[in-house]
Amino acid sequence: MVLKSEPLAKLASAGLRAISAQSVSLASGLDIRWLGFSYVAFRLLHTLRDRLSGRLPGLTLQDYLVYVIFFPAFTAGPIDRVQRFTQDFHHPVKLTAEKALQGGKRILLGIFSKFVLADGLALIALNTTNASQVTSTGWLWLMLYAFALRIFFDFAGYTDIAIGLGHLLGIQLPENFDQPYRKPNLTQFWNSWHITLANWFRAYFFNPLTRALRTSTSSIPAAFIIFFGQLSTFVLIGLWHGITWNFAIWGAWHGLGLFIHNRWTELLRSKGISFEARPRLQWLVRTAGTLLTFHYVSLGWVWFVLSTPEQSWKTLLKLVGIG
Amino acid sequence: MAESMKSASHFWKRVILKGVLLFLLLNFLFVPLDPLPALGRISAYNLVFPGRLRLPYGEVPEQAYNLSLYNLDAMFASHELAGRVKPASEYRVILVGDSSVWGYLLKPENTLAAYINASGLKVSDDRNVHAYNLGYPTMSITKDLLILSYAMQYQPDLVIWLITLESLPVQKQLDSPILQNNPSSVSDLITRYSLALDVQDPRFAGNSFLSRTIIGQRRDLADILRLQLYGVSWAATGIDQYYPVSYEPPQEDLDPDLSFQGLPPPVLDPSNLAMEVLSAGSTMAGNVPVLFVNEPIYISKGQNSEVRYNFFYPQWAYDQYRNIFSSSCHQDGWQCLDEWNLVPADEFTNSAIHMNPAGTQALAFQLQEAILSLSMH
After folding, report:
1. What CATH number does the domain located at B46-375 have?
2. How many distinct helices (H) and strands (E) make up chain B?
């Protein structure tokens, strides 16, 4: 909590500076860093919860520590499950020429994605400075697209490197991305973007919460349970990135989007509407859905990348030609 | 197991061997082909993005959306000058000089060239005056000569070359990084115009085999790409410079030291000034008239201002420089303007030569009159 909140992190820094006879006025929220903390926390929470529910297999201390700090995935995942990881750890996949080639390819792909594509796009991607300097709507859209692609290539590139290293070490880390920007709706997007994080929150927050609401004595409408479950899950995912209004709104943006998609799907189902019999129409709907989803996600990045709700709102208005 | 390991080992040997061979081959080919100038001329500016209004220069690229690079072909290709075929209705004026011409701390619309263009000046044959900003920060008239050598291909009708004493000392001529990183072009100028500068200057960037390979040129290659990418931000924001929230004004109270660039008073020997570089520029321009302008300087009224004009100049040296400049103009038949005291002290920004928009506009007004006068010749 302290690390994720800038004011608290600054306060902690000031405290540490005070007790080590350093100038308190130099304290900054960026002083205290803990590389890979979030992902270590996810792994620890996963094992604690599974231990409580009796699903944790017997582990040696060595197994456990290697799982928690496995270096390719230490800083930014993927968040593996301990049950699967220890299986590979005890019986690593043999390094054949084919496996080596696979691993090497993933590492090269990751390096190219991260250091060429993502770092190149970073020069033109939307940020807190250029958001208020852009003079035309068209260029603002371009910068937003650049950010959307940059964050994907950055994270997916890192994941490729981690998975490739895992291949070389005989550990098959789980996939984290599956062409998310090509998905026709937000539900599929979140099944293919940062997959292991979404799975973690589904397993340890969304499912227990909705189960508890469904089994509560008072009858709560199913739609409300879905709404509340998705909204709270995604607000929590937002706040995991940092305790700020913008991250909370970004989470709510996705929670709300998922709920709307859920209701839309229900509506189509209840009316018996299906496009399967009409392939061309189905293609059209799918293409429109992909474009809509990509733009909904991209507009959501405005909340993610900018630092205040005011600036984000102004930028969103500018994107639609107002202001 | 053993067979699998053997196969993996064989595979890696082949991959590494082929990779190394291919990498070496590309590096060897890169040296004789020397593709950097040609690559520099391939530009998204003037095509996808509007051309820049001044040459690329930036100390804080991520905030300036601009960067300093040494590939003159790439620099010119990103400039608006490269994107315009000269129309018959245009009277083309190019401005060369230091950071005051480039417009340090000035927005693109507040530079000398921009004010000349905003005046809507027409010369006597009804052609529209269009001025192009080819100033470049760093103090060396040899740097200006190098830029002029590239600019002449764009058919100027008039060259305005703004100078100040700080750019003239012979020993400072090759200090500019852009000169040190273009050794063959600079050596060519030194030889062609018999300049009293050293073609073997040790500050010239290395010309070793390794420095001409992809490995040696990796920074230059990356700079060309970064320049293209920053074109998006330039097009989107119109910003090409980082403007600090505050800056130090020119020093008002001055040091009593009377020396200038290590030269003691009381006599400034003309041989210490690279006036021959100005002659070379005049020769290079051929039939195109060149107007030499001694640019305005900040004149302090603070402590020791009776012996120094400002941080740069002791009075004895600057006064003698003005005499030398005036004599050269007279003897060589140059067109000259001496505007040294045109701009009041409160119209300078962070140095003795950087003017604010008002000071720049005042100088632009003087230049407009000179342009009209010269266009009649």
Report:
1. 3.40.50.1110
2. 13, 5
